[in-house]
Design a protein that fits this description.
Helices cover about 30% and strands about 35% of the residues. It has one helix and four strands, in the order ββββα. The two termini are about 25 Å apart.
Length: about 45
Amino acid sequence: MVICRPFITVKGRRIFAKDVGKKAFCFEVTPEQHKEYMKKKKEKE
């Protein structure tokens, strides 16, 4: 599964894709990682 975001956070600083000539930062995650993230996000709310 590929996740794309318009910015990433590095050392507490947001880096926007448009500032480095991209439309988005994309990275690969497994379905298990995605399910775990969504579970933690739901618990946080």
